[in-house]
Amino acid sequence: MKVHDIQYPTQMPSHCDQGYSLAIGFFDGLHRGHQQLIQEAVSQAKRSKTRAAVMTFDPHPSVVLSGKKTDIHYITPLKQKLELLRDMDVDDVFVVRFTSDFARLSPETFMDEFILKLNVHHVIAGFDFSFGAFGKGDMEHMTSYLAGQVQVMTIPKFTLEEDKVSSTRIRKELTEGNVDNVRDLLGRPFQLDGIVVHGDKRGRTIQFPTANIATDEEQYIPANGVYAVRMFVQNKWVDGVCNVGYKPTVQDIKKLSIEVHLFDFDHDIYGEQVRVLWYAPIRKEQKFPSLDALKQQIQRDKEQAIALLGSLSLPERP
Hints:
One of its GO terms (molecular function) is riboflavin kinase activity. The chain is an alpha/beta fold.
């Protein structure tokens, strides 16, 4: 898969003789609705012998358009998004830098520069996709403007349990800790990547050592609580429980911590790059009257996680 970094107007890709079948969107989460849209582009490319392509944007438009400092947390940071697109048989990804200059483009200029000049044969986007200055361009406008030059396909909303599957819905579920619902919406477990760093090592004193995970500040993190997870470390998947929170029983720290206790695993992994998949919530974070009470609860959490994860097959790849 080839990744093209685009910054208008100084860094633009060249015309492609083979042409593209292009899916356009921000695609945070790459949820099941996004997957349906992108797979349509891949299918169109195979039928027309064009290249399957995706156009996405970085950073999130609100960073530029809000007019104030905006903290954005992504369901799928760009690196993770690109990995997922590679697995979907996409040939090319255009990562458009969302700048003030780009935001000021008229809908017509956007279509001229980013669709016609690229030699796009098919363009596929969601029913609610908007583009151009102030979002004035919509799919009806695109269909009319590109008529006779590019085939435009509008994908209707994808629903689950009668509600639209959207990045907003996924963020709400993550905020509430419902990672099992997020798994249904994404079609895969929620994923968090990070590095194992040194912690206070208190877990070892109660026979439940944990790996402390430092992650990208822009990564969305589920609500405080305990979860059944799997972690990819040292080239294998290991089941465990993850605690997100401030450890009120032992320390009540001010900085959020992400700690994973791995089952049947006793290796030094400081500095390791790891991947954590989140399968199901177990309980909310709470303060216990003693370390012994905490230890007993962690044992119950572990037993519950073993039961939950035991019926699930391992991921095919990291």
